[in-house]
Write a structure and sequence with these properties.
single chain, mainly beta, Neuraminidase, four-stranded antiparallel β-sheet, 2 helices, globular
């Protein structure tokens, strides 16, 4: 039986369409448009999605990533974006307001001992407090072993906000822990007998380094490194000097970037550029005082700074030495140029995303990785 030419034509068209669709399905994803910045153009790639309120990112030696989710989950994420099931034996957290499972860092000898440290809002009978746990990671079993709380704030007030919680190892192997003022207890930030509004420095097992600035001083907690902080949610070591740098939230302005010095007072709530939320009135005595360390950079109005890192990679040569700060309320990434410890200028990036940037890390490939809290994604900046 002969097939009419019109039917043969339709069959050929159908086969052609199937071939085109198959080719499109097999084709690589079209590269994202180039984002043009002042120092280096880049593209934004989505590494992984499906996370719930991601808070912190840490790279493992095998190329995988550890990611915390604030409701209380810790996951392994592969370089191609696959999410593991939640890791077992994570400490129970107070997942309310800004609290939950927060920072994660791997130890200096992780390749040998597999130790990691987690910061979290720890529930207590009275309320909750910022705490730090050490554990051994069994990546193949997706489990934590030998979990031990090595530090917990003395203060455990009620409330949902200002937990601090960034963790940074110094070059001597000691651990910096940032502690918020818990919002309603801001006056305690000036009291060195309280953990609220402080940065502390402990040994990995929770012991006290003997060269801490308040060791042996009456009425002071020996683990305190600096005081007068509001809510430090970003911290990193300077790659050249080894000094701790940190950023913190101010109220209605007064966000700060600081070089954190031993025993120093950073002013909150007595010296600040911030204003009261309801009245808009000034807070404290003013913006400067001789015994208070001034910020390297401050923002008015507030951008709500979070995770940050110094860039040292080769993927973006013109970014070397720049400080990158993620912003929550500002929904952007700030690139800061420095001259030593002096602010030179800043560039605001990713404003078109409309996402709260919770963490910023440099990957082993020399690229920048970001946690997009709004969409639950890990983003990567690739050279453009």
């Amino acid at each position: 039986m002969l097939i009419p030419s019109s039917l043969r034509l339709r069959a050929r068209i159908a086969r052609s369409l199937i071939g085109v669709l198959a080719a499109l399905a097999a084709a690589p994803v079209i590269a994202q448009p180039v984002v043009r910045s002042e120092a280096a153009n880049f593209r934004i790639s989505t590494v992984a999605s499906g996370l719930e309120t991601p808070w912190s990112l840490a790279f493992l030696p095998d190329g995988n990533m550890l990611v915390t989710e604030r409701p209380g989950r810790l996951r392994v994420v592969t370089p191609d974006g696959k999410l593991s099931a939640p890791i077992r034996n994570v400490p129970r957290v107070h997942a309310a307001g800004q609290g939950g499972l927060l920072d994660v860092v791997i130890g200096p000898d992780f390749a040998r001992d597999r130790l990691i440290w987690l910061s979290f809002a720890q529930p207590t009978q009275k309320g909750a407090r910022t705490a730090v746990a050490r554990a051994r990671l069994d990546e193949s079993a997706l489990s934590l072993q030998d979990v031990e709380v090595v530090f917990a704030q003395r203060d455990d007030p009620e409330g949902r906000n200002h937990w601090g919680s960034r963790l940074v190892f110094d070059r001597d192997g000691n651990l910096f822990v940032t502690l918020g003022d818990r919002y309603s207890h801001r006056d305690s930030a000036q009291d060195v007998g309280s953990h609220l509004g402080k940065i502390v420095r402990i040994r990995p097992d929770g012991g006290i380094p003997p060269d801490n600035p308040f060791v042996g001083k009456t009425g002071a907690l020996p683990e305190i490194w600096s005081f007068g902080h509001r809510n430090v949610q970003g911290a990193a070591l300077h790659p050249v000097t080894g000094k701790l740098w940190a950023n913190e939230h101010g109220p209605q302005g007064g966000d700060e970037v600081n070089v954190v010095r031993a025993g120093a007072n950073y002013g909150w709530p007595v010296i600040t550029y911030g204003k009261e939320y309801v009245t808009g009135f000034s807070i404290g005595e003013g913006t400067q005082r001789a015994d208070v360390v001034p910020p390297v950079r401050y923002w008015v109005p507030s951008i709500a700074p979070s995770g940050m890192t110094f860039y040292t990679g080769d993927a973006f040569p013109k970014w070397k030495g720049n400080l990158f700060v993620g912003a929550l309320r500002g929904q952007l990434l700030v690139r800061i140029e420095l001259d030593g410890e002096k602010f030179v200028r800043e560039e605001r990036l990713l404003t078109e995303l409309g996402s709260r940037i919770r963490d910023v890390r440099q990957g082993p490939d020399g690229k920048l990785y970001l946690l997009d809290e709004t969409e639950g994604r890990i983003l990567r900046l690739d050279p453009g």
